[in-house]
Write a structure and sequence with these properties.
heterodimer, A: 329 residues, alpha/beta, 33% helix, globular, B: 348 residues, eight-stranded mixed sheet, four-stranded antiparallel sheet, 12 helices, 22% strand
Chain lengths: 329, 348
């Protein structure tokens, strides 16, 4: 795929074997992230965006498993590493930030102890050096009085401050890639802006690649360089963020963008996509979106579209199939 | 005036004041247990969840209350529907004190007031069929007893929220989040209410489903002449649905203005800050101005204006004296703003 990509995911498929058959939660998706790039992954609940992130860092909950495809970090495959090896990659090479900062921190240890543990596990540092690095990290994430705060327990921090600690923890070993799964969803808007700003500054300075998973298009709009829109376990559209937002190519993306209320324009009715995303047990044939798509035609229910060039983006939609006889309007 | 009319013979014209909150406060006692107070000498502590809030809602309009978590917006919703008794102040509903609601004579009033909750998974009884859920208010208020009429009414209500009559035999778990919220709305509409209190009705939903519910709520407002109090933390949703907006901070309304004025020319520094903090789709590549600081602990709010520690315009007076809501005119549109700096003309 793209040369110089830090993370390359190719034909990734995540499945859940159940008694009633195998569910395909992530179905054949490919993307890459370059160093210093923020790739946004959006989609509604159940689109498979969090599972994609979990598959990349090897944290799929059993019985979920990677059934096919490969994940490469800096050219090396990491999807088939034994658990011990993968644990070293996590933390050292890939940092993770999850939605709820309270569950990412151990309530029984001070944040300093948790940071020092992560630092000494991955970097060759003495306790003393690790502690001063922990204080530096807390300062870098904007926590006031870090020398004092380093000895506090997670419950002594507010929600926004806790998420900063989680970010400090994710950055502790200077990973090349950060997977941020809904990092601001649990926070109030004024705190959200601070956290997003922090993530952006940090990855610009350290050239860290970020996979930002969220359902909030607004957060994507101001943070991401490129965005992948997921629907029913597949990428419906991927492209530069401004193009996907302002010139969406896939009918699902068009509907999704239209359904977001705006503060800039006065709209009487929001665009509405009737119905809801199919359950994994009943994914329609062909294009999974065709039963809800106003532009669907015969081919859509029979053949599954792969990503194809559409404007400056790529969309998985037969409307953009130049050879198929029907061009996009 | 609606105040002299009997609630049963209501024929409210659009624009009549139907809800009036007059200086309502709600305090919660969050003291440590008695023994700890005695042994450890800990004092009683009171949380001022809502402090001296006044507003009016006119028939046919949508008033929204926005604010961050803990600002007291949901407490107001609960006071208005009578789930909490206000610690101070009074709520008038069609000119009647809300406290009369408990009496038998208040039954007519209660029918005119319904609530839609945030979580469509928790607000529907999982063991009941949709038909029973939607019919419950009809039976509780003794409006209908004939099973055939009830079934007809349930069908009609499901039709109103764009569900099919066949859905009434199903259980809540068979529906998606958006469909469940429709069921909640159908239940709320069963008694032909005039006023709906909607506490974050779309926060638990995905955007495309949120759009369906918001469109439905707007359609129903037009068809049935409903009045909404809409509680939300999402400014874009509030911009879409409201006529007037009240912005809350630490239990008080800091600005109350028509939507167009509030979003185009916000006055209070907190409103400005909130609007700056919102990511918008048009903001690709643009950085928003992050706000310094966090909401203070409501148990120990700062003196004077509670926003002063985060406010770039705060001066000595702001630290001493709490501002009250005052009329402020800008570009010919009136708004109520509680800010010394705006009042003194220090900020425009």
């Amino acid at each position: 795929m793209s040369p110089g990509a830090l993370l390359e995911v190719r034909s990734l498929r995540v499945e859940f074997p159940t008694r009633r058959g195998t569910l395909l939660a992530v179905d054949d998706i490919s993307f890459s992230i370059a160093p210093g790039e923020v790739l946004g992954v959006v989609g509604e609940s159940g689109a498979g965006k969090s599972l994609t992130g979990a598959a990349v860092i090897g944290l799929l909950e059993p019985p979920g498993r990677i059934a096919r495809g490969e994940v490469k970090l800096a050219g090396l495959r990491i999807d088939n590493l034994p658990p011990d090896e993968m644990r070293k990659v996590r933390g050292r090479e890939i940092g993770a930030i999850f939605q709820d900062p309270l569950t990412s921190l151990n309530p029984l240890y001070t944040v300093g102890q948790q940071l020092v543990e992560t630092i000494t596990t991955h970097l060759h540092m003495s306790q003393q050096q690790a502690r001063s690095r922990a204080i530096e990290l807390l300062a870098a994430t904007g926590i006031p009085a870090p020398e004092r705060r380093v000895d506090h327990y997670p419950h002594q921090f507010s929600g926004g401050m806790r998420q900063r600690v989680v970010i400090a923890l994710a950055l502790a070993a200077e990973p090349k890639l950060i997977i941020a799964d809904e990092p601001t969803t649990a926070l109030d808007v004024s705190i959200q802006a601070q956290i997003i700003q922090l993530l952006k500054t940090l990855c610009r300075e350290k050239r860290t690649a970020v996979m930002l998973i969220t359902h909030d298009m607004g957060v994507i709009a101001e943070t991401a360089d490129r965005v992948a829109v997921m629907y029913a376990g597949r990428i419906a559209e991927i492209g530069p963020v401004a193009d996907v937002i302002h010139r969406p190519q896939h009918p699902y993306t068009v509907g999704l963008m239209g359904s977001i209320p705006s503060m800039e324009h006065e709209i009487e009715r929001l665009a509405q996509i009737d119905g809801s995303m199919p359950r994994l047990t009943e994914i329609p044939s062909g294009c999974a979106f065709h039963p809800r798509c106003e532009k669907a035609f015969g081919r859509c229910s029979r053949e599954r579209p792969e990503l194809m060039p559409a404007g400056t983006s790529q969309a998985a939609c037969w409307l953009h199939d130049a050879g198929g006889g029907r061009m996009a309007a | 005036m609606s105040a002299v009319r009997k609630p049963s013979a209501e024929a409210t014209a659009p624009g009549d004041v139907i809800v009036r909150a007059d200086g309502i406060s709600k305090y919660f006692d969050v003291s440590p247990p008695w023994l700890n107070r005695v042994l450890e000498g800990k004092p009683r502590t009171t949380l001022h969840a809502v402090d001296e809030v006044s507003f009016e809602i006119r028939s046919g309009e949508t008033l929204s209350l926005v604010g961050e978590s803990g600002c007291g917006k949901s407490t107001i919703a609960r006071v208005l529907v009578g789930l909490y008794a206000p610690s101070k102040g009074r709520v008038e509903f069609f000119g009647h004190d809300l406290r009369e609601m408990g009496s038998a004579a208040g039954r007519n009033l209660r029918q005119k007031l319904q609530m839609i909750f945030q979580d469509p998974y928790a607000s529907l009884n999982p063991r009941w069929r949709v038909a029973d859920i939607v019919a419950e208010p009809l039976k509780a208020h003794g409006l209908m007893s004939d099973p055939q009429r009830i079934t007809a009414r349930v069908d009609e209500l499901l039709g109103l929220v764009r569900l099919s009559p066949a859905d009434k035999a199903k259980y809540p778990h068979q529906f998606s989040g958006g469909q469940r919220q429709r069921i909640s709305i159908a239940r709320a509409l069963a008694t032909n209410p005039e006023f709906l209190v909607c506490d974050e009705p779309t926060s638990a939903l995905d955007v495309s489903v949120q759009a369906q519910v918001l469109n439905l709520m707007k359609d129903l407002q037009r068809e049935l002449g409903l009045t909404y109090l809409f509680i939300s933390h999402n400014l874009a949703v509030v911009h879409h649905i409201s006529d007037r907006v009240g912005v809350m901070y630490l239990g008080r309304i800091v600005e109350l203005a028509p939507k167009s004025r509030l979003f185009a020319a916000p006055s209070h520094p907190y409103t400005r800050m909130l609007l700056d903090a919102i990511p918008d789709l048009d903001m690709t590549g643009r950085a928003r101005t992050p706000v310094a600081g966090e909401v203070p602990n409501p148990l120990n709010p700062p003196p004077g204006c509670t926003f002063h520690p985060r406010c770039p315009h705060a001066d000595e007076r702001c630290k001493r004296e709490a501002p009250v809501l005052k009329l402020h005119r800008h570009a010919g549109i009136e708004a109520q703003v509680a800010c010394h700096a705006v009042e003194e003309g220090r900020i425009g």
